[in-house]
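Deviations from the work plan: none for this task. Representative record:
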Amino acid sequence: MEKAVELIQIVKRFPGVLANDHVDLTVFKGEIHSIVGENGAGKTTLMNQLYGLLRPDSGEIRIFGQKVNFKGPRDAIAKGIGMVHQHFMLVNTLTVAENVVLGSETTRGIIFDLKEAQRKVEKLSKSYGLQIDPTAKIENLPVGMQQRVEIIKTLYRGAEILILDEPTAVLTPQETQELFSILRKLKESGKTIIFISHKLNEVMDISDRITVMRQGKVTGVLNKNETNVKEIARLMVGREIVFTVQKPQAKASDVVLRVENLWVKDYRKLDAVKGVSFEVKKGEIYGIAGVAGNGQSELVEALTGLRKPEKGKIFLLGEDVTGKPVKELRERGMTHIPEDRHKYGLILQYPAYYNMILGRHYVPPFARGDFLDQKKIQEFTAQVFSQFDVRPNNIKMLGMNFSGGNQQKLVVAREMSAKPKLIVVSQPTRGLDVGATEFIHKALIELRDTGVAVLLISMELDEIMSLSDRIAVMYNGQIMGEVDPQQTTIEEIGLMMAGHKFEEVRRF
Amino acid sequence: MRVLTAIWEIFTNPAFYKLTLTAATPFIFASLGGVYSEITGVVNIALEGIMLMGAFVSIVFTAITGNPWIGVLFAIFVGLGMAWLHAWASIKWRGNQIVSGTALILLAQGVTGFLMEPIFGRPGQTDIVGKIPELRIPLLMKNRFLAQSIGELSPMIYIAFGCVALAWFIIYKTKLGLRMRAVGENPEAADTLGVNVYMIRYFGVLMSGIMASLGGAFLSVGEVGNFRELMTGGRGFIALAAMILGNWNPVGAMWASLLFGFSEAFANQLQSSPMLHVASSTKPLFNMFPFIVTLIVIAGFIGKTRPPAADGVPYEK
């Protein structure tokens, strides 16, 4: 078989990190080749070198047998390589056609020929089954469509080798299936596809062969038909991964949080939470399941003091805390792992040690009077870092320079180490790899077992099912029902997530 | 009543429309400069300084050569030089664009003030050294109203409108323009497609230097024929407001500039109206009028316009 891509002994160093350590990779023409690994394993760095965004410190890159030396993406594009980045590289205010041709524009004399660009996009979209309106503005398109634009961009430039960096991270399950059928079609027409992911089920679904990376090294090259998820996970993480969370029976006791008939409006002033009531007890994980956008975010914001409720009462440890400010709630023992760690969880421009004490920066031991005690802060952070295994173990690194999984660990570590009585946890493992997910799940259960009340809000049904001691399902701002995970099924919860009340579901 | 009559007289006077065009022209030039620069993602508040320098240099070289067009040409050179400094600081060195712009404004004020003595022998203002003659269009002279409003205008006014058309063509009809818009909105995306972000931004900033210096040259050799210290009087900032109000679109910026030119001309006419007998001590109050219009308009429209997403953000590979 013809080799489309050969990376030979690639080494890439960043200050303090060996991102790629003598990496070899061979991709055959016409295959779908997955590269899997945890966050920070060096997958994206490797691909950025193949695409000319970075230059290897040493090693060799061959494309269709020919040695290349890319000075920039332009050189890589010229050799038939196209990359769909994890964060889309699209200009939101321009149209589909304009985005596709940017950098290699269709022209008539000095005039940019938009009509011709639209024709070409239309032609490409027809021949590969990528339905798209070339005149639509990017900002008006859903994420799945934007991804198609990225794929068309590479095809327009004559890509024979397509690199997709975690393409499914932002897609719904349906969009993922559509993407997979597009990828299969591209494969049939002879394109070579490199698929980067850490979602092992998807990798098993779409790949022909799989290269596994861990800490900058290749730990295995596997044929899909001769391997399984467990083996890949072991190569990825370096140890056995337990996919089902093991936990002792909860010893739930006193009520820590009581919510009575809570109504909350969203930013458009529409009712988002409509009369929700529930209780979370000491030593249990209370899970709230539901499809995104059914009022969960507004509920969390109202509970944590970020948004004023319209009606209803919130009691924390028996005291009415409805509408109290965040600071007071935190002082009363509520902490919060927010769903958006960049927006609410971290100050990205701050070093880790300041991030670690946010919210407690004004109390001893971190503050002495009006001044920060730098030494105590750093000692504390160093201790928390080793306890939560944050990597790299450098407390002075800026928040933005940690990988996604380690940023989340920073937030989790801060909120857990504040000795909460109630912790409100929203989407704790979104975008995280299996290793980090497992770690955070374990930490939540340990916290529960020390007698903390945990309110878990997640769109991942598996997560809710395996962690929660009781589950409520939210739909359209209301709770459809409350179930015991031992005595329910995915189907029952699925029906409630689609808007059927518990009583109806049980009648079915 | 008296006030309404005065306003009516102003609006029916054809000379008022000539004054509006004349007052709008520096705004048009400079706001186009703002558009060129910011559409690629570089904020250029140095417009004010570049205008002042343009006004000064064009007078100096008109005095030396006797030809105001040569004065304009040198104004363009100096404008390019200042814009290059701004580009170098904010693109190459990723400096703070507001700081760099402010420095250039102060530099221009200092240099022009300092050079008055050695070149013209006195501070304050120069003698009339010559201006570009107005262009008479015979066809328009037949009608009294047209003749007095737009029959005889400085050729630089026509150039200003030509520049609007040119800017619109470059930005929306050429591949360079597509790249400029892409770089100002998402430089990383443009970079991954092999577009040279730095080159495009240099182009935008240098164009803004040309435009702003033309605006400044118009104030001196285009309009009055001499130079006064600080004669730009904040017009560079009003031009920025015009750019915002015009939603970073050259045609929009032109309409906004006409509005500001209109309000400046209106304030001037109103304070010197024989109907009103405005005391000379209160006249400066009228000069605030364009700025108040700017404030109101900006406060009312600012939420509705949208700057390029990467405006003012240095790009780092």
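Chain B is about 70% helix and 0% strand.
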